[in-house]
Amino acid sequence: MGIVAIVGRPNVGKSTLFNRLVGQRRAIVDQTAGVTRDRHYGKCEWCGKTFSVIDTGGYTTNSEDVFENEIRKQVMSAIEEADVILFLCDVGTGITDYDQSIAKILRRTKKPVILAVNKVDSGEKIYGTYEFNALGLGEPMVIASASGGGTGDLLDRLVAELEKTGSKDVDEDLAHLPRITIVGRPNVGKSSMTNALLGEERNIVTPVAGTTRDSITTRYNKFGYDFLLVDTAGMRKKTKVSEDLEFYSVMRAIRSIENSDVCILMIDATEGIQAQDLNIFYLIQKNGKGCVIVVNKWDLIEKDTMTMKNFTEDILAKTAPFTDVPVVFTSVINKQRIHDVLEKAMEVYKNYSQKVDWKELNDALMPQIEEHQPPMYKGKEVRIKYITQLPVKVPSFAFFCNLPQYIKDPYKRFLENRLRERFNFTGCPVNIYFKEKK
To answer: What gap in Å lies between CA 13 and CA 117, rounded to an integer?
Structure first.
């Protein structure tokens, strides 16, 4: 059915309405004005029709604030991209100067505009909606997005307007696409990397740490690749997170890691790998996700022929025992080796998704196991009979043996190393389980 963009000034309830339309708490909602900065996409289904919804930041005209300048650009991009525009106002404040400015822009557009007045949660407030006719955008619809009041009628109107535009249903299921998530500490270049890969100013980039708040998902479909690219908020140590907004941003980032297939962990070359970088790395490993480490801002480092090698060795020494992870050195601002990041991420996804044939698996490993059997335990001989890969997303293997409880970690690492030597699991965690087979 096309695309609907929700626009309006700050704090009128755009993200609350967005969450209700898509049926999930996808966007952060807070009383603080200006919480939403980047364009946020979701899918809405109504009466058998499906369409995309864009949540935007609050539009203002204060040109002194760097964030508000960038938010305005994102709002204008959403208006340009949309088939139908949903202009949201707040009944409690009446028409403001910002509302007038937005209405002036929307009156000039040739696209359908639906005016909705939000926060009408009682019969008395309906009388306050009449003044919004003065905006010149037709009869306003009355809604209360927090409780859902009036949203059914609003959706009926949206579907009708989208049908008039001739746009088609968004019925494509994206669940099968790989999810590549960019994570890291604040201000390491995550949003810059996203924009560089997409070739557009998809996400707001400023020198201020914490610019990105929500996790922003975008489909990448170029150069033979097709996947979902997720930009996340910077993740600081828990002790340094003092504001509710940052807490929710970090929680969204953690949730994005949990829902991803491969994570691109970005670190700052000028600072080296920090304790918090390692915390994020271990979080990726704990959740069983593929990983590519990207060292950004490489243009700021004084280098010789051994600098890159030494830097890589230092990183892998700190990520041990998991050292089978690709490391890419980039300068996003100079677009240096950014496509290497893409290639490595998709290579790791291929490794992450591979299914090894049962016969090939046993033919490759059983001779080595016969040659190096598990150590005896209290005079008891441990014998592994055969191996199979488990039908789960993370590369996982079950080794069937007579006494699984007596196999210790050193032998488990031996088996993992043999698996990695024979089959390419670079960048992927490998889970090994021992099952009893009498």
So the answer is: 10
The one-character DSSP state at 374 is P
Instruction: Spell out the per-residue pLDDT of the chain, length 438, in tens.
Output: 588 989 888 889 888 899 889 887 655 444 444 445 456 777 888 888 888 888 887 777 665 555 566 667 777 777 887 889 999 999 988 999 889 988 988 988 888 999 999 998 877 788 788 899 999 999 999 999 889 899 999 999 999 998 888 665 544 556 688 999 999 888 888 888 888 888 766 544 445 444 444 567 788 888 888 988 888 877 766 555 444 444 555 666 777 888 889 999 999 999 999 988 998 999 899 889 999 999 999 999 998 889 999 999 999 999 988 899 999 999 998 989 988 999 999 999 999 999 999 999 999 999 999 999 888 877 888 899 999 999 998 999 999 999 888 888 999 999 999 999 999 999 999 999 999 876
Give the other-Cβ count within 10 Å of 355's Cβ. 9
Query: Could you identify the residue written with the tokens 């990520």?
Result: 319
The backbone torsions φ and ψ at residue 217, rounded to the nearest 5 degrees and listed phi first, read -105, 130
Tokens of 380: 């008891």
Where does 301-429 show beta strands of DSSP type E? 327-329, 384-389, 396-401
Q: Are 96 and 20 in contact (CB under 8 A)?
A: no
Round to whole Å and give the CA distance between 257 and 245.
19
Predicted TM-score (pTM) above 0.85: no
Provide the pairing of β-strand 49-55 with 84-90: unpaired
Which residues are within 8 A (CB) of 405 and not within 5 positions of it... i.e. 6 or more apart? 434
Cross-strand bridge partners of residue 40? 55
ω before 321 within 30° of 0 (cis)? yes
Contacts of 305 (CB under 8 A, 6+ apart): none
Q: Specify the long-range contacts of residues 42-50, CB closer than 8 Å, at least 24 apart.
A: 42/18, 43/170, 44/4, 44/155, 46/155, 46/156, 46/158, 46/159, 47/155, 47/156, 47/159, 49/1, 49/159, 49/162, 49/169, 50/1, 50/169, 50/170, 50/171
Rounded Cα–Cα distance for residues 63 and 15 (Å): 23
